[in-house]
Predict the structure.
Amino acid sequence: MPDLDRLSSLLVHQAEACGRLGSPMYEALLRRAAQQLAVTGPLRDVLAAHADAPGPAATGLRLLGTVHRLVLERRAGDLALYYPSVGGRFTLDAAWPALLDVLANHPAEVADGMRRPPQTNEVGRAAALVGGLLRVLRPDPMPLRLYELGASAGLNLRAEQFRYVSRSGVWGPSDSPVQLQAAWTGTSTPLGTAMQVVDRRGCDPDPLDPTSTEGRLVLTSYVWPDQPRRLERLRGALEIAARVPAEVTRQPAADFVARMHLLDDHVTVLWHSVMWQYLDADEQDVVTGQVRRMSQQASLGAPFVYLSLEPGRRADGVDHEFLVLVETWPVGERQVLGVAQPHGLPVQWEC
């Protein structure tokens, strides 16, 4: 028998997270789903098959992302009336029966969508990645070769094309369609460095093409419908992706890093954000070993930077934080630069 009590607890946990991250709509829907899971009907039918999935599988977000896609495709009937992403106004008691109708009317499509992990190519996380580079690069750096693990559609491989606005100043093209407001707080960010990115490559187990209709639809479906700023950032990043090419291959992270090499007269950067938890321990060890291999090859003429934004603990027994970590070689210094929110903004710099 499926463990519906456990799944209900996971849905409540995800609801609480959505509430903390500014989506009262998804908090309300997930809480209602947790309450109604034991009731015979389309919700139980679709979720029972995922009752034993681990917490990181984000079962609730898979369901809501799949439903959001049907809304965006104008195939969700009256449910669209309650989705702000298409001009609706959310009311839980009115939206809930309409959502159940969508589950009942599209069982095959919902079941298929539940197989896909959420593709949250969150543009706001670029604030931590670019801000971290500004703190460790020389004011006149060599050209950058940018590599990303878990790149999804590769939107953040174009991160230097975004505009970053903070109290300490602004950085990036003034006419960028992506404007990251209140990007940085805490210690002032050095703003005198210009980045010339000459190579953009990433890997992902299920990459998306941001220049295709399908890719744009999937990415939009996993943005929470009541968060217009995130939707606006995504639209701007898709505009940039249409004119700035980047290569994202379907490849395990370990294989991708194994094929990396350093290049004279270039800075090689490897970064990732909120993906490490999806690698098993063996692959994490392989990636870490390959990073160590490249670090040993680094020189002043071919430096290497390893930068990440991932949840972690600074010490045993303390709470998780989303830490901005950087290591640079040939110096080899490892630093916690600051902390960020799960979706990136704002980044609180500590050094």
